[in-house]
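Hey team,

Sharing the Thiamine-phosphate synthase run so nobody has to redo it. Sequence (200 residues) first:
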Amino acid sequence: MLPRLFCLVGPTDDLSVLPDLARLGVRGFQVRAKHWSTRVDDRMALRLARDVVAAVRPHGATVVVDDRLDVALAAGADGVHLGALDLPVADARRLAPGLLVGATCRDADDVRRATQDGADYAGFGPVFDTLSKPGLPAPLGLDAISAATGDLPLLAIGGMDAPRAREARSAGAHGVAVIGALWRQPDPLLAARELLDAVA
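Structure output:
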C-alpha cells in the first residue's frame, strides 16, 4: 500500500533520525539530492540511497529515489520518482516493471498522462508556498487537488505542515510528502507524529 506520509531525505539531513521516524510509523522515504550531477556525485547519491534503505527498510518502510532510476535500482530501493525532465515514466516502467513509479504532476491532464504511462502515484504540487525548492511555479491550491483526483493516488507536496496535510487529505489527496515540516522542526519526531495523525 502506498504510504500516506513521505519524508524527503537529502545529503544534509540527519540520517540517525530515520530509524526512529520509521519506527514511529513514517512508511515513505524519498531520497532527494538535486544538486549532484557529476560521476563522483553519482557514487555519493548511491551511498545516500543505500544508507536510507538500510536505516528504514528493517522497520517496513518504502524508499523511492528522486529522478534517478539507475540509483534506485543499484541501491535496491522500492521505487523511483520522476519529474518532467527525467526519464519518461513509460520507459521507467518498461525497464523496471517491479518498481513503484511516481510522477510529478501539476494538473489533471498531467495525472491522466502519468496514468496512461504506467505511474503508480502522482506527486502533486506545489500546493502551497514552500521554501524548500526555489524556482517552482505558483502554488496550485487545494482546489487543484480536488480537480485532479480519481486516476492516481495523489501525494500533495509544497508548504505542508500538519494542518495543511489534513486539508490536503480532505481535498482528495492520498497523502503528503514533506521536507521542512520535519527537517526544519526542533523535534522531527513530534512533527512526524502530528503529520501521521493528520493524514490517517
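The longest strand covers residues 100-105.

Ping me if you want the raw files.
A.
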